[in-house]
Design brief:
With 372 residues, the protein is α/β, with parallel strands linked by helices. Helix content is 51%, strand content 13%. The protein has helices at 8-24, 38-54, 75-80, 99-105, 114-127, 130-138, 176-183, 193-202, 214-217, 245-250, 253-261, 263-288, 298-321, 327-348, 352-362; strands at 26-30, 60-64, 86-89, 141-146, 153-156, 170-172, 187-189, 207-210, 226-229, 239-244, 292-295. The strands form two sheets. It has a six-stranded mixed β-sheet, with helices on both faces. The longest helix is centred in the C-terminal third of the chain and has 26 residues, at 263-288. The radius of gyration is 20 Å and the shape is globular.
């Protein structure tokens, strides 16, 4: 069933790559975003280069972009079955297999603190959610290095000036965005960000609720007319490193330790560089290109107020339906971590180097790569 995720041509390539990996520790990373996606250029590529250089070439990852080897929803299973060595795993695409992780992903953090959100997501997955780690084991995977986007915003084909303008529109939504869209009177639509570009062009989709960086990553800037500059919460984490367990255990202890040692660099690359810094440039370019920017106002803020009233019970119920035990405990840890990280970053600094250091000190120094 899962082998349909890979074309016959690439199946042959994988067989060759698998043989090479066994001989020379060369691994295949399947990246289902495009080659120019900032999570690749600003996070994965620098991380994999760091591993290669520090290991003296012993760790050699071959990154294959553009969903050539596996789709987004198919990546976790392709990794687990050994069809690829690693890839990017997103819980909402596999809500049954990754139900505990999806408990975190589905809860939208209010505010604009991307760094605290990214840190809280990693702390929750790595230290505060044993069920998350258990589900990776069941999937024959090892997961770490999740990242956070900047808060989601509405990006729409028609001009959207008020919440009322969203009523009846079809909005690509995921996680808590589904509930946000419903509160706004819109119709949530489930699809990948990449597929949404074509849907917007054809008029079968009106809006996307997503990160500002998607204006460039998925060329939304060419098909939307308006962007609502009001934060609609932060969700995650997409796991940048979801590694086949057999591959992970086949590495030397030193190789495994290097992957974890530099996990904070990978998280910072994806959250700080590819999101926060990059988004500011993209937003400025969108304004210059003539996109209508709807300023934050009470109407859109009211969506988040209503979301905050409803989402906890909604997430808990969905998690219980997916057989997650005591999802309340997962959420309590996550929210407490978010609050703690906001204070920690305020006290110690929000520059990139400090962020990397804190991720190591507070989270990844406590992760034993031998027990993942």
């Amino acid at each position: 069933m899962k082998k349909r995720l890979i074309t016959s041509a690439f199946a042959l390539a994988m067989a060759v790559a698998g043989s090479t990996a066994a001989q020379a520790d060369k691994f295949v990373y399947s990246f289902w975003f495009g080659a120019n996606h900032t999570a690749n250029t600003m996070a994965l590529q620098p991380y994999l280069k760091m591993l290669r250089e520090e290991s003296g070439g012993k760790i050699d990852w071959d990154l294959v972009p553009g969903a050539q080897l596996a789709s987004g929803p198919g990546t976790p299973e392709a990794v687990g079955e050994g069809l690829i060595d690693a890839g990017l795993a997103i819980a909402p695409y596999q809500p049954k297999l990754m139900a505990a992780t999806n408990t975190i992903f589905a809860y939208s953090l209010l505010g604009k603190d991307t760094l605290a959100a990214a840190a809280a997501m990693n702390e929750a997955v790595m230290l505060g959610c044993p069920q998350c780690q258990e589900e990776y084991h069941r999937m024959n995977g090892v997961g770490f290095a999740g990242y956070a986007t900047t808060p989601y915003v509405f990006m729409c084909r028609p001009e959207v000036k008020t919440v009322e303008d969203l009523k009846g529109l079809k909005v690509r939504s995921s996680g808590a965005g589904v509930l946000i869209s419903e509160i706004a009177g819109a119709t949530p639509v489930s699809m990948s960000p990449g597929d949404a570009t074509t849907a917007l062009e054809r008029g079968t989709l009106d809006c996307v609720l997503g990160a500002v960086s998607w204006l460039k990553s998925y060329s939304y800037q060419d098909v939307v007319k308006s962007v609502v500059d009001s934060p609609m919460g932060t969700g995650g984490p997409p796991l940048l490193m979801f590694v086949n367990r057999d591959v992970w255990q086949g590495m030397t202890p030193e190789m495994r330790a290097l992957h974890i040692k530099h996990a904070p660099d990978l998280v910072a690359g994806a959250s700080y560089d590819a999101q926060m810094v990059n988004d500011a440039k993209i937003f400025a370019a969108a304004k210059e290109a003539g996109l209508m920017i709807t300023p934050d106002n009470e109407g859109f803020a009211s969506l988040m107020t209503e979301l905050d009233k409803r989402q906890r019970q909604s997430v808990i119920q969905h998690s219980k339906d997916a057989n997650v035990k005591n999802p309340e405990e997962i959420l309590d840890f996550y929210l407490a971590s978010y609050e703690r990280w906001q204070k920690l970053l305020d006290e110690q600094g929000r520059d990139r180097d400090t962020f990397v250091r804190l991720l190591w000190d507070e989270i990844y120094s406590k992760v034993d790569p031998e027990t993942l």
